[in-house]
Fold this sequence. Notes:
Layout: E1 2-12, H1 18-28, E2 32-37, E3 43-50, H2 51-61, E4 69-78, E5 87-89
Parallel strand pairs: 2-5
Antiparallel strand pairs: 1-3, 1-4, 2-3
Amino acid sequence: MTKQVRILVSGRVQGVYFRAFTQKQAKKHQLSGFAKNLPDGRVEVVAAGSNEAVEKLVRWCHRGPIMARVDHVETEELAGIDLPGGFEIR
Length: 90
């Protein structure tokens, strides 16, 4: 079964390779989607794949890479979003 989510991560998450490490995790779990910095300092992650793989990425986003400090994570399920093949950094 395929699941799509939007994850908003706040804290010290820009300038600490959060997007690059998210891409690495997404590729590891064969997810498609993207990660991008938002003007308000958060990182937005949109991902699609198996339920288990998406949940692993969500759990990882609660920790992030070693240089990040994750203060808050919001997730929302999406439906019918047309995502690129693979996982992009935007």
